[in-house]
Batch of 3 targets.
Target 1
Amino acid sequence: MPLQTEHDIVMSRQTVRKLTQELKFSLVDQTKMITAASELSRNTVVYGGGGEMRWSIVANGGRAGLRLAFEDKGPGIPDVDLALTDGWTSGKGMGVGLSGSRRLVNEFDLRTAPGEGTCVTITRWK
Amino acid sequence: MERIPILQMGKCLLVTIQVDLQDQVALRLQDDLSSTIEATGATGVLIDISALEIVDSFIGRMLASISGIARVLDATTVVVGMQPAVAITLVELGLSLEGVRTALNVERGMAMLSLRDGEGDHDLVD
């Protein structure tokens, strides 16, 4: 789904809510995944200049999980370690978006290159 | 764009957030509340977020800045009704809503605000 406008951030939350409900995540797990999706969608829209969210249902043995990828073709992140530090912010945020979302999920993968964009992939297992 | 209604009850302003908040709507609420406090001389603001399924860093920042602005305008803000799953997620995300008064429900929130009225200008200690 596209992530171009603020309204798309709301749509991504609703999509993730529906998916986590279908997967029968607990309420706390649903809330964590939706919150992480909200943070990362906003990053894509505000800092990445727009992009998209892709989702897939994944399985590991008997466990089901939800994987989300947020990709943009924006400016990229020059210093990943710095960007993942609590309190660091490039804009007017609180600096918890990236580092905080990482705490809300089981797997977190960040690929970025200056000038080429950013792709954040998160997974939460049931 | 949609707008969150602000109700006045005596010296208190009541806001119930019932929709999945778009960022601009949240910012507008902040502006609307500041001007309403100024126009009415309200001494208390009660924000009911029991219908909110998530509070991400943007909404968290909005709640913190409303509290800050209101304090400067001599009004006390109480945020009530946060769902437990939202509270768990918010803390894990890294937001503690410092400086924001909270209460379990509307009734207790109103009690906190009326206490302030009764005691004049003393700050609330609970």
Target 2
Amino acid sequence: MPITVTLDDRLHDKRMTLTELAERVDITLANLSILKTGKAKAIRFSTLQALCRELDCQPGDLLGYTAD
Amino acid sequence: MPKIPEDRLLFFTRMMLTLLLGLTIIASTVALLTIPVLLAERGDVAAQLAASGIDPAGIPSIAILLALVAGIALLAFFFVRHLRRIVDSVADGDPFVPANADRLRNMGWLALAIQALLIPTTGLVIWLDALPHKANVHYSDNNSFGGLILALLLFVLARVFRRGTEMREELEGTV
């Protein structure tokens, strides 16, 4: 998929673990792991909003696009 | 997926379908086994029919009719088996799977095939009924569009299920 998720980089910047983020945004670790590994097919605005709030970033900081 | 607790409707449906599976197998087997017996004992059967005042000219047609009945029963068996598996998946709490869409589509084809076999079957029964000294064959004129409508409905339902399955997969991939 040409859409990439750069969640790992933001977590690294914030010195936060995936487990910690999962607790803060109230999303299961399994689902967040799916998002992090790029296996998710879609992301809800509410999820994006929670991630941006906790990671103090913009949606564009979490997602990237690379042409095929 | 959570397993749906066994309810009376599902239990009754599964029982009925299991019974139907048995009946279709019995009907198909009996019809198939009768054909060689009828043909082997053709002379005796013809003599007995003639003695009873029934025209024995219908014996080959009766054999063909039995073959058609066996075919219809066999197709009905596969139809009911698909339905039983769909009901089982409902009981398991996971009916929106690609396999059920395939099953519904196959059931549609089976309904069409049964309908196609019913045409010569009905024709033969009408012909046998019209023989002099009626061979005591009875039929009910139920050759309506019901079978065709059922097949169309099953094809549409198959598409609904396929779309439902795709939507579920999409939903499961949404974070």
Target 3
Amino acid sequence: MATRSPTTKSAQAQAAAGGTTKAWQIGRSHRKVDAMDRMRGVARYTDDLKLPGMLHAKIMRSPHAHANIKGIDTSRALNLEGVFAVVTGQDFKIPYGVIPWTPDENALAVNKVCHVGDGIAAVAATDEDTAIEAVNRIDVDYELLKAYFDPEEALMEGALQINPHAKRGNLSKNLILEFGDAARAVQNSQLVIEGDYFFCGTTHAALEPHCAVAQVDPNGLLTVWSATQVSHYLHRELAKVLELPAHKIRVIQPPLGGAFGGKSEPFDLEFCVAKLALITGRPVKLLYTREEVFYSHRGRHPMKMRYRTGFSREGKIQGVEARTIIDGGAYSSFGLVTTYYSGQLLCAPYDFPAYRFHSTRVYTNKPACGPKRGHGSVQPRFALEVQLDKAAVKLGIDPIDLRRRNDLGSHSTTINEFRIGSNGFLACLEAVERASQWKQRRAQLRYGCGLGVAGSTYISGTNYPIYPNDMPQAAVQICIDRSGRVRVFSGANDIGQGSDTMLAVITAQELGVELDDIRVLSADTDLCPVDLGAYSSRITLMVGNACLDAAHKLRKKVCAAVAKRWEIPATRITLVQRKAMDIEDPSHHIAIAEAFSWAEADHGLLGEVGSYNTPKEERHGTYRGGTIGASPAYSFTAHVAEVGVDEDTGVVEVKKIWVAHDCGRALSRKIVEGQMEGSVYMGFAEALFESHEVDPEHGGVHRGPSLLDYRLPTFADTPPIESLIIEAPDANGPYGAKEAGEGPLHPCIPAIANAIYDAVGIRMDHMPFDPPSVLAALDTRRASDMAGTTTRHPRPTGSATGPGRPA
Amino acid sequence: MSHGPVLSFELNGEPITTTVPAHWTLLELLRYRLDLIGSKQGCDKGDCGACTVQLDGEPVLACLTLAATTQGRSVTTVEGLGYQRGACHPLQDAFDRFDAAQCGFCTPGILLSAEALLRKQARAVSREEVRAALAGNLCRCTGYTKIIDAVVDCGERLYGPPVTEAAPTD
């Protein structure tokens, strides 16, 4: 008779399972469930779909930034051979908007155009060439109006109203929130830092252009395949605008070629293909050109920000005041939320005793802005983190230490009444400090080279959905069959971030199978439960929790069936390595497929649903707007950037970026690292390369709507990125997991700005930090050197090279 | 619409004869007529590299290559990258292991640029060499890091570790 203790047996079982049983899948690196299809060239993205009899559509777009449409004559287009149908704004009179409070756009312009590129009419023809020819034959009679490209000008008395649905002239949203007496707190501070910052607009530039295909079947079911990251909102808006019941519409998101927020609301092409398919009875496809992608935009808002921040002599923040003008472009998009986020998401990781922000979003005659990775909070984060750096220099405090002194801590409440759970910010700071050898190297770098730091926080989904309802925020259905195969049905949109793999990892963890045994079917409104989509970094926490709920219910059924046959308690059964195993005697096991068949015999067909809803109690403020920006869990990030600045050319070379991100728990390590690296890259690109602008001197046309003119960093431009995963598990996340897809972008831009100051003593408060701006700032600094007014620069902790560090 | 003149070339190791309108690009021919959808259209202007294929073993942009110019030549697309039917190329395996593809839209083009680099060097390659060779292929998801990891690793697996740090060429 063996005398091994149960503990030993259990330890053996754990060893057999590769460490702890939790380590069966969670925290490992995985091959993504859909990667090989994409790499072999067989994954069918939307533009890869080809249906019998399919027509091709094109949209006629406005060459004017602001004009009334006095008449449209489509007859010459309709008379062209090969043209099947033409639609105009008269076919889409119901306005829509992704935020239900601001339905202020039509699928095609009804009576006026509000920016260059606004859609006016759409044509379906036998092929693209014919559709383009037909578009050229549409005659529009315009009455030109004065266009506004500057938000402050658009707000002036007597300015023409841009958006016909707007309720308050060109004011899109005005918001003041105050917590404590910020003005007095700043006034009474020992140090006040004031700064004016400008964040230029940037766009997503996902490599896959937007594309949609529609088909109507003989029973009248409309199917729309679209490169969208929010199938559900698209589904709702299609039903509204087309006046069809939602159950007569099926939305499918095929594999997606990148999104970054740029595909998070309905676009004109989806309504157009649907309507043209309904009219012609033929399938219709519409693919944007790259130029159309730039004009459709919905990218990061330009923001003019004025910050006043008060500090104690020890570097403690005493109060923050922010005034922000947000250039919204022609439509609301997510702008209501953006306006809140521009202030609401700033209240961690630092403790503010007093805070006031005033944000104003304005309509202008430009492509509408919307959400881009780190929605609404990347811009104010830039301003605040540079403010902190300026204070550190003035106070002679190491910038990392200054951030430590202001740490809000875990299980805390922000000044705007958001409840923070786990918080790994200090560990993030320590990790980048150590990895970059901050203390040693910063003291030794020669003039022209510098290190900069910045920190941030971000949400893991929003506590309340976009349209008010009490239903779960996420739901997943899982089915098991006797072959050992598991199918996961989820409405969540995998946009390349790996959410399908995340669901497979959780399911495999709970059911003891390999990722290969799992088929994830996602983002098809006919097959899958409703999910709200890929935005606000909600999927891992919310859909992950729903998946865990369903998988856990199935695990219990399977364990119970095995326990019954083995006549041992179900708590002794574990599911790992495609086996059901007795924890106390790992040699006692059966194949998982057999365990599944036992469970099916006991319980009937094996399927479970899981749901997730956010905790609502004491999570957020009770004031108006106090729910916007509240999240079940918050991630934290710190960056250190190292730069070299060439004084002759103004070129900033980022040599390396260290990023530490508290994702709660890394469910799949390489995917988390990939999100961190991609975020850093995107922030780096915005800091140094990108500027999404129209040209007022040329009637509001885009300055460079191509992937050459709109500069993006290539392999050769992008610095090495070192990812440091920090895990502060949060009670609200699945296995403690929080987001990793957006938070890691935030500190990148201010970390680079702060490193440029460290290198050459110039403050880059306006983006991007391109060579002309750097050269101009260097000239200004030299003039100030001559005048003897240069602030002691920079090494606040006592650089050997001293002030100015002349070359 | 005319189907255009007859065109014969080698596609992924097999001879092919088709017709093509004279103004069509190789990308249009591949995607629209031959249903080889692995080559992606990201910009149609030669800016992004998503349509990269190989012409006689050299990476070219299919969106800037007139289909007619492939007459008598050899074209390789991502569909032809596997060593044999059903098996993936070691680069594809490396990309899979390193999670070097996120959305995957740029991946076919990058694989073809990287394959040409490894085949021509026939030795382990450095990160700098990968950065230079792939500079014509944009990726917006990965920050390039894991792609470089995968190509360097694949080079070492195929050809062994780098001989010396300083070896400029073979």
